[in-house]
Structure formats: structure tokens, C-alpha cells
Amino acid sequence: MDEAIRVESLKKYYGKFAAVDDISFNVQSGEIFGILGPNGAGKTTTLEILEGLHSPNDGSVTVLNLDVLKHPKEIKSRIGVQLQSSAYYDYLNLLEILTLLASFYPPNVRANPTEILRKVDLENKSRQRVNTLSGGEKQRFTIAASLINNPELLILDEPTTGLDPRSRRNIWQLIEGINQSGITVVLTTHYMDEAEALCRRIAIMDNGHLIAVDTPANLRASLEYQHAVKLTVETPLTEAQIVSLNNLDADIETKSENTYAIKLKGGTASLDLLLKSIVADNVKFQNLEITPVTLEDVFLDLTGNELQEAP
Amino acid sequence: MIQLTLHNLKIMARNRHSTFWALFFPLLLVVVFGLFQVGNFGGADVNVVNNSTNEASKEFIAQISSNNFFEVSQVDSIETALTRLNNGETEYVLTIPSEFNYNMDGTLSLQYTDQDPQQNEITLLMLSNLLNQSNAEFSSRNLIQTIELKKPETTYFDTVLLGLVGLGIMTNSIISIAVKISNYRNQSILKRMLVTPLPIWKFFASEIAAHLILAIIQAIIILGLGILLFGASIRGNPASLLFIILMGSIVFLNIGFIMSAWTNSPSAASGMGNAIALPMIFFSGTFFSVTTLPWIMPVVSQVLPLTPMLSALRDIGLNGYPIWSVWQDIAALAAWIVVTSIIAIKVFRFS
Ligand SMILES: Nc1ncnc2c1ncn2[C@@H]1O[C@H](COP(=O)(O)OP(=O)(O)OP(=O)(O)O)[C@@H](O)[C@H]1O
Ligand SMILES: [Mg+2]
Question: Which CA distances in Å does B3 have to A66, A261, B8, B210?
Fold first, then answer.
């Protein structure tokens, strides 16, 4: 398969601070590739180097088989970019902005502005100004703007941050549709559900480091356990009960006096044993939550930190 | 790039607020000065050239100064005074001889124009009265020798009108570009441009082009109002005037770019723009000549970019001089363009 992006030993410093510290990954043509990480992980910095906005301090970066330092102009005319925070002209309507943006590109790659607006379902708002759009519409418009040059590669920086669940799903569908039309997509996100739902492969970033790159399924499978169990009981477990639970293939952690977090290994077979053991030991539980491991758990396991601060 | 320029003009046309205010202030001043010239305020504006150092002369000047009818200012040389008379900046030039005393015939010379004979008569009468009061003994003598000059071809209003063209273009160019670029930067519009293959110089060139077009429109409206409504007479080749206007405008746009780089918010950019523009209005002689001001002010005036712009506009527009006769002003403006461009490119920030 072709490579859309290749990043090797990339480093970027702001003063002495390493915003991106020696990361390497590649993106295959045709896939949706996600970069998942908390605030300040270095996601935006990485993308902006791909887009030619910053130059790397060290390492090499090729986009569409072109070196970012040597062919910035050609890269720019072949990729589409949605910046994390970017407004558009206040006094122009959607159609005018797209027409203007199109004029910056070589004639042979320009898309038809009206068609693009139709693609993101904003055709009937073409005469409105950006500041009259809702949050979700605004995001759809910025995606539309990034499609104005029929790009081969689309780079989206947090396309759904700040949106309600419905608008988010709406954007997911849009991105999937774009990808199905043959465009490679690279996106960043804080949300593991988004990464899981949308991305074929995920890079996990934290503090400027790349901690893992793989498919969501492989990342989950890389954990030693497959289920996270949260057990809340009426009276604290006795020694005997704990020993009995420990006979299962599990790590038990006491969270508070009467809640326990259990990392359960051994797949669904263990679930059966857990339930039986709870009944057999006569554990009086108030609540029992069993969830398959998520990327959140992967992140916690790899970094020791939560991906998102508790709301 | 033409696309971008057109879109920029469209944005300006739709951003009615700022465009309106850009035009409003200079136009308001045109109206104020226009009405001022039409209305007669009764008193007499006198420039006194005192060639004497004796007490009598000082006493006499103090005496006329204390009279409400006279608006007195002392001028060092007769040439300056006559220039101002000719420009309409003053109405009377009174010369006091070196051996001033109250008992010589034709001691004082009063020069004025034939623009308003009635006022001339009153002024002469008032002046004689003052002399008589101070020294009744010589009341019968005619102490004042009068020289009536032809009405000057240019009036004070004409001079101010060209000053207002400079003022309008300067404030608008500096402030509107500083605020706009600052806004673009805060909203990451500049960054959005950078991820397209558009060469960034085209982005700036089209901003400049759109603002130059606005400057031309502004100049036409200001001059048009002055000429049509208040009868100003502006001579000179319009193409030469246009050339000077464009040069000046480029300097001020560059200054606007620099202001936007030195500040972090649109309102700070606007404030800083004003802080630069307002003193310049004063020191560059928009409303009155600064060559008569004391101390280093004339020097300050010479190192400001608005000064050569106004000087060239007035030489061409008032005296009808050809463009090559103002080559010194053009050279000064060209130097300003070079210097401000270099600084603007050096200090500009995209984010
Ligand atoms: N221009 C800059 N100067 C100094 N430090 C910077 C600059 N830009 C970014 N940083 C720092 O680099 C680090 C990485 O920033 P970056 O924007 O890449 O993070 P991010 O992963 O995109 O975060 P977020 O999810 O909040 O968007 C942050 O700690 C940030 O403060
Ligand atoms: Mg970011």
C-alpha cells in the first residue's frame, strides 16, 4: 500500500520545551488515521508541521511522497486542512468564501463551491455568513472549505470538539463519506469513542511522545485484561471472599471501603466464573458494572493518567 | 489576486461601520472649515512683524493684543508673514519699524488683501483708535501706511482641504489596516491563508491594492465636497495629485502593518494607530503652518511622513506646480516607503 505520510524521528522545540519529542509513524493511503491525546500532547504541533506551518527541528517528514521542506507549495495544493481554531471572513457569505479560497489553488484542482456545500448539507445556507451558523454547521463548513481543492489527503484538527453528541455523529458520517470517496484522512481527537468509531489506526500521544500506534482492536488486545469490573458491596469483603475472587485470573484493587476495581483476564470465560464466585461467596452487592476494555483503559495503562479529566 | 482584491473591497463595502467612520471624520472637518470660511467672525487676525526692540513697540503690541477685536500673533520675518497672508492663514500683516515711536508719519505698515474691503476699513479704524488712545497728542497724524494686495488665489480653506485629504488618508490607512490585520491574526485567518498555496505576498498586495482604491475614493469625496459645496479651488494635474496620494497611502499602510505586529489585539492596534496619527496631524501642518512654531517643532515636522505628502499636495494643488518640482517631497516619501516596508517585513507576525 502507498504511504500518504511518513514521519521519522520528528522533533519540535519551543525554546527548550519539546512539544514533539522524537516521534515516528506513517499513514497509509486510503485510511482514516487518528491521533489521540490529551491537551498539550503535541497533536496540533505535529499536524502543523505536516501542513508546512512550522519547520521541524529534527527528523524527516514526507507528505504524499514529497518532503515538507522541499515542496511545501505542491503539498499545500494537494492536501486539505482544517485548523483547530480558524475563523473565516466576517463579511462574506459561505459561497463567496469558498469561491475566494478556490481562487488560491491551481485551476485544475478547484472544486465547485456549490457542490462542496451540497456535500456537507449546507447548500441552503450558501448566502449566510459564518457567524450566523450553529456550532455543528460551522464545523461542517470548515470541512467543506478544506475540500475546495479536491485534496488527496485531508487533515482535520479536532473536528468535533465542543459539539453535542448528535452533531458529532453527523460529522463522523461526513468524514466516513469523504474517506469512502478515496480521500485519506488524518484527524486528532480527545475522545476515545471517536477514535474507535472512526479510525482504522490510532496513534496515542502524550507529552510530545508517541506511545503506541495500532488498530483500536489491537490496542485493546494489548492489555493483559479484557474486562473492567466495578463492584460496589453493602459490607466490605471479607478476607476469604477476596482470596476466593483472587482465584480468578484478576487483579483486585480496593477503591474505597466498599468499592473494588477488578481487572479481569481470560475473556468471557472468566466473566462466568466471576459471577458464579460472587453468588457462591454470598457477596451482597449493590452494584456491578462490567465493561469491555476501552481505549481509555489502554491510555491509562500506557501513561498512568486519565485521557480526559473527570467532568 | 484580482479575486482577492475584489473580495477585500466587498468586505470593506459591507463593513459599513468602519468605512463610514473612516470617511466621516475628515468630511466633518471639511464642513466645519467650509462653514468657518463662509461665516465672518468679525475680528481681525493680525500677524505682527516687530523690527524694533524698544519698549514702545512692546507696549503697543501688548495693547493691541489685549483688544478683543484683534487676534495677534508675532512672526519673525516679513516673508513668513506675507506667505501666510497669501495662503489665507492670516488676514493682516502689521510691520513695526526698528525705530518705533509714536510721532512719525507712516511709521506702521499694514498689509492686507482686497478680499473684504468692509472689514479692512473697520480694522484700520480700530487700529487708529488704539494709537490715538495711547497718544492723544499725535491723533491727527496718519501713523499707518496701508498696502492693499490682490486677493490671493488660494484661500486658507484650500490649504486646509488638502490637509484634510492627507489627514483622512493617513488615519484611515494606519488604523484600518492595523485593526484588520490584528483581527485576521486573532481569528487565525492569516494561518488559514498560509495552508493554501497562495503566495503570501499576494495576500498583502491585494490588501494594499484594496486600501489604495479606498484612499482614492476618499480623496475624491473630500475634494469633491470641498470644491462643489464650499467653492474650494484646487489646481494642478489630478494625476500628479493621485500619485502623491498613493505614495503617502503606501507609507501609512506600512505603518499600519507595523502597528498590527506591535500589538496583540485589534483595540490596542487601533489605540496605537491613533497615538501615531494624532500628533502627526498636528506636527505636519494639517491646519496651520508649523514653521512658525517655536523650538524643535519645525524639525520634528520635517521628519514626519505626512509633511512631504502635504507639502507636495499643496505645491501641486494650490500653486499648480508640475510634479517634478516637488521631487524632494517625492524622494522623502520614497525613502519612507523603503524604510517602512523593511520594518514591516521584519516585524510582521502571522500568529
Ligand atoms: N508557539 C508556541 N510557543 C510555545 N509553546 C507552544 C507553542 N505552540 C504550542 N506550544 C506548546 O506545545 C505543547 C503542544 O501543543 P499542541 O498545540 O501541539 O497540543 P495539542 O495536543 O494540540 O493540544 P490540544 O488538545 O489542547 O489542542 C503545549 O504544551 C503547548 O503549550
Ligand atoms: Mg491541538
Answer: 29, 62, 9, 11
ipTM for the predicted complex comes to 0.83
Decide: A12 and A54 in contact? Cβ < 8 Å: yes
CATH superfamily of B44-149: abc type-2 transporter like domain (3.40.1710.10)
Report the distance separating Cα A139 and Cα A145, nearest Å.
Answer: 10
CA-CA distance, B292 to B48, in Å (whole number)? 12
Both A116 and A165 in one domain: the answer is yes
Q: What does pTM read for this prediction?
A: 0.76
Domain-terminating residue out of A191, A220, A249 = A220
- Cβ distance A92 to B191 less than 8 Å, yes or no, reads no
Number of the ligand closest to the Cα of A45: 1
State which of A165, A194, A220 marks the end of a domain: A220
How far is the C-alpha of B25 from the C-alpha of B15, rounded, in Å?
17
* Domain of residue A271, residue span: 224-292
Pick the atom of ligand 1 nearest to A84's CA: 27
CA A171 – CA A184 distance, rounded (Å): 16
B114-155 pLDDT, tens digit each:
777 777 788 888 887 777 776 655 554 566 777 776 666 677
pLDDT at B140: 42
Kindly state whether B275 is in contact with chain A, defined as any CB-CB distance less than 8 angstroms. Answer: no
> Would you kindly state where each structural domain of chain B is located, as residue ranges?
2-37+155-347, 44-149
Q: pLDDT tens-digit profile of A266-300?
A: 778 788 888 888 887 777 888 888 888 888 888 88
A234-248, B211-225, B246-260: segment of lowest average pLDDT: A234-248
**Domain for residue A214, yes or no?**
yes
Domain with residue A266: its CATH number is 3.30.70.1150
> A99 vs chain B: nearest CA distance in angstroms?
9
